[in-house]
Amino acid sequence: MSMLASQVIKGDIRSIARLISLVENNDSTAIDPMKELHRFTGKAHVIGVTGVMGSGKSSLIYELAKTYRKQKKTVGIIAIDPSSPFSGGALLGDRIRMTDLSTNKGVFIRSMGTRGMLGGLTAAVYDVISILDAAGKDIILVETVGIGQDEIDIAKIADTTLVILVPGLGDSVQMIKAGLMEIADIFIVNKADKPGAEQTVAEIESLLDICEKSVRQTPIIKTSAKKKQGISDLIQEIQNHKEYLKTSKQYEMRKRKRYETELYELIRKRLMNYIYDETKLKDRIDNLIDQITKKKLDPHTAADEILHKILK
Amino acid sequence: MEKKIRVLVAKPGLDGHDRGAKVVCRALRDAGMEVIYTGLHQTAEQIVNTALQEDVDVIGLSLLSGAHMTFFTDISHLMKKKKMTDVLVVGGGIIPEEDVPRLKKIGVNAVFGPGTPVNDIVRYIRENVKE
User: Fold this and answer.
1) Average pLDDT in the B116-130 region?
2) Looking at the complex, does the CB of residue B102 fall below 8 Å from at least one CB of chain A?
3) What does the pLDDT average to over A293-309?
4) Distance from CA of B71 to the nearest CA of A (A)
5) Distance of CA B17 to CAs A4, A268, B10, B63, B69, Å?
6) Are residues A147 and A207 in the same domain?
7) Which of B29, B43, B54 sits opposite A87 (nearest CB)?
8) Is B24 at the interface with chain A, CB within 8 A?
């Protein structure tokens, strides 16, 4: 086994951090260690945390992590913020709400930019989850970017998806449109110390009545990260959901779904890398684009030709 | 492979003024870098642990409190202990000219005082990030 992979399994912080950078940078030297790590994964419970901007995702993750530490569980946190579509740079500020966790030996936090990926995640998130899992983290919390309407990819990779709402968000039709109803395993009404929390709970309840899809009723938990209220209720509900997954065989189905998404994503990425790296192919594509622009060829025929070339 | 420069911008100690640090964060972001901002009141240990987990290429400290000698000494000591020899360390804020040579001696690579054009900082980082 490679030095890097074995150090990651031992939980060496520097090696974990370095391997994450390699997968983030699409560095080919990450592929072998990632292959080796796969059989050491599968023990962590992956919790996705999503919600609109300013709903308190980071603060709530901070409270969850602290409570899990009290239970002697180790925690990995992946905090995703948007990369600028103009410069490619990013300002990653989720750690501001989690300062004193950085000296907690059982917690590893990594901030990531979306780097052009839509859907509220970043392309490397699958590998980063696997790295933290193989490094022995019991709980992995994934914080998506503040979502608007269709950034619901987190549900494909998390074991438990938490959707955070806050009082006064606006009318309930917005929520149906967002697709949030379908992905939530647990609803959280955060900032519940503010007026309007009961009304938000009631609105979610009535919406769930319309579109409830499974035997399990989706719980709604009121929390206040600021006043540290409702955190232990939430942890209990996460545990309940985990047990529900295990007893209803949903667990295997979800894991399969996660690997299905990951594999397709990986094939897509490798294919694009292959096209960009093969200069001959790239030249041919440039040539085809010229022909398409001059109306000598159509994009569909050009795509057929390239696919034939790759498959040969 | 698409390597991005990652920078940690930190405000150590009891100094609540971070307008300058935020301006620098923005400039580095607009130059295509990934900037992790810690927020206020960080300890040396928090800063070094964060830098390690985030695998940054650069640590930038902003101090207006006068405690720069103490903090840079502590941070440089912790970095040596954790074998972080490939990380660039830069400082900014209110740091007297006569302290700069002493800071460089303990391992600070560059100090950017008030009035430094942000482009100078961007250029310095691009040219000096250790491979």
Assistant:
1) 92
2) no
3) 93
4) 17
5) 40, 46, 12, 9, 18
6) yes
7) B29
8) no
